[in-house]
């Protein structure tokens, strides 16, 4: 590790702006567990804020420069605007201002870091790796950008000397970590509002891999062109790390490549077999669906073996994993159980396609109905055709208005860029009224069908409303059309 041993102590009293967000609350939990005085602010009250207060944080609702009294370090995410009164005051008075990732890096001091990166799948892979290590007695620290039912929280400080972290590439902040093991699930163009070009995205991941030294390990998916190319490039380094790959594609080096075979759906999960580097085979029975989740599990299993976990024990531990929040998360069903409702955070075309593939496997002969909310004007403009192609995998598609998040509207950029690409007569509609969308989707469902809400915005609030709608009109009338959420700090 190269992190300075006094990095944590130098933080002093820490104030986190937007402390209720998934990433920021994770940092707050770790800092509190390591004895750092923590305060924070958020735009609205939430259960997350209540939990942080119970852990000892001083948390304010609303932003005010007065909240910075006696503060030494202010922590922000990319989502915090420069006009925020607390951030403006911190800079005006010369306080130390750190990005969330820099504060988390300080909290990792003295541990072996497993940093999980990738355009898709990093939350689930981070969660799987954490569950694997916990179930095999390693007691890792962890910070995950989503809730995990098996863990109970999105972050905690463990005693095992290992820190598993979701490494967010969206703003380049994953370069602030010092990993012993770096996992790269895939590399595709995204967050082009930050990077500008696909080439810049790939360059950032190359820089991420360059953080690894000769005693470290890169775990990469060879089924993805971007991460496979990265693995090849890193293997050419004379002083580079060990490179292990995983995937369903043929291996080139049995001593360094894991092979996934015989994937078959099994209920809401799957069965498969993995041959690890060196020839050891293990069976994998997952409780989460989709081939993409088998790949995520393979990455977690490889990371575990690097840390000394027996492959059989690791596979058994992964069999206990029941999913991460908003990753094909079961929300409920009709009163007779014949129609099921799921929610997924997918907000990139590849993720949407994977979610629909998983939905198909779970639905069987039933129809798949999707309620999709595009996320960001820039992403909708860039990937409209790809979103339409991915959504075509559903039997019925309803597209809501764009969730703007951190962006201002762009002239001419609406959800119609997606729906207009469907042929006349195809079951795809644009709906501006979420309440009507819920009613229509529930009314169209038949026994055996699967309803899926998709997107990184507040569409997640519509899953429970769909469950209510399946129970009948009175439940719809009693439903609140919106659910307050903490300030977002990552995707």
What does this structure look like?
With 491 residues, this protein is of the alpha/beta class. The protein folds into three domains: 11-100, NAD(P)-binding Rossmann-like Domain (Rossmann fold, 3-Layer(aba) Sandwich), CATH 3.40.50.720; 108-318, UDP-N-acetylmuramoyl-L-alanine:D-glutamate ligase; 329-478, Protein-Tyrosine Phosphatase, Chain A (Alpha-Beta Complex). It has 16 helices and 21 strands. It has a ten-stranded mixed sheet, sandwiched between helices. A six-stranded mixed sheet has the order 16-17-21-18-19-20, sandwiched between helices. The protein is globular, with a radius of gyration of 22 Å. Mean pLDDT is 92; it is low at 475-490.
Quick gist of this model?
This protein is an alpha/beta fold and 491 residues long.
In CATH terms, the superfamily of the largest domain is Mur-like, catalytic domain
Count of domain modules: 3
* Arithmetic mean pLDDT: 92
- Examine the coordinates and then state which fold CATH places here, giving the name of the CATH topology of the largest domain: UDP-N-acetylmuramoyl-L-alanine:D-glutamate ligase
CATH class group of the largest domain:
Alpha Beta
């Amino acid at each position: 590790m190269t992190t300075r041993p006094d990095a944590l102590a130098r933080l002093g009293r820490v104030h986190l702006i937007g402390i209720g967000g998934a990433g920021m609350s994770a940092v707050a939990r770790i800092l509190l567990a390591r004895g750092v005085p923590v305060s924070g602010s958020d735009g609205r009250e939430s259960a997350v804020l209540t939990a942080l207060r119970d852990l000892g944080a001083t948390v304010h609702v609303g932003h005010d420069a007065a909240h910075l009294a006696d503060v030494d370090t202010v922590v922000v995410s990319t989502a915090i605007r420069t006009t925020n009164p607390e951030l403006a005051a911190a800079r005006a008075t010369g306080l130390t201002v750190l990005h969330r990732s820099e504060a988390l890096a300080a909290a990792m001091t003295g541990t072996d870091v497993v940093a999980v990166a990738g355009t898709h799948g990093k939350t689930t892979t981070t969660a799987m790796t954490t569950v694997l290590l916990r179930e095999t007695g390693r007691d890792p620290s962890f910070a995950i950008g989503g809730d995990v039912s098996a863990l109970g929280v999105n972050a905690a400080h463990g005693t095992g000397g290992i820190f598993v972290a979701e490494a967010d590439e969206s703003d380049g902040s994953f370069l602030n970590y010092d990993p012993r093991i770096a996992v790269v699930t895939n590399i595709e163009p995204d967050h082009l509002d930050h990077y500008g070009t696909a080439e810049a995205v790939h360059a950032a991941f190359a820089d991420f891999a360059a953080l690894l030294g000769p005693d470290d390990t890169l775990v990469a998916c060879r089924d993805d062109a971007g991460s496979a190319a990265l693995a090849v490039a890193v293997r050419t380094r004379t002083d580079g790390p060990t490179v292990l790959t995983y995937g369903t594609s043929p291996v080139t080096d049995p001593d360094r490549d894991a092979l996934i075979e015989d994937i078959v759906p099994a209920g809401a999960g799957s069965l498969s077999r993995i041959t690890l580097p060196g020839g050891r085979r293990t069976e994998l029975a997952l409780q989460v669906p989709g081939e993409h989740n088998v790949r995520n599990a393979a990455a977690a299993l490889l990371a575990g073996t690097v840390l000394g976990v027996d492959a059989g024990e690791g596979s058994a531990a992964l069999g206990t994993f029941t999913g991460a929040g908003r990753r094909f998360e079961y929300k409920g069903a009709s009163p007779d159980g014949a129609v099921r409702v799921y929610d997924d955070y997918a907000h990139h075309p590849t993720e949407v396609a994977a979610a629909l593939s998983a939905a198909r496997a779970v639905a069987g002969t039933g129809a798949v109905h999707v309620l999709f909310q595009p996320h960001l004007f820039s992403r909708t403009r860039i990937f409209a055709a790809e979103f339409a192609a991915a959504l075509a995998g559903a039997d019925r598609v309803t597209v809501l208005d764009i969730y703007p998040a951190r962006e201002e509207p762009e002239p001419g950029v609406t959800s119609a860029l997606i729906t207009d690409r469907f042929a006349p007569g195809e079951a795809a509609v644009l709906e501006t009224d979420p309440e009507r969308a819920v009613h229509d989707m529930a009314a169209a469902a038949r026994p055996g069908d699967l309803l899926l809400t998709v997107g990184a915005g507040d569409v997640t609030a519509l899953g429970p409303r769909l469950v209510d709608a399946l129970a009948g009109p009175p439940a719809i009338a009693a439903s609140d059309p919106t659910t307050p959420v903490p300030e977002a700090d990552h995707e």
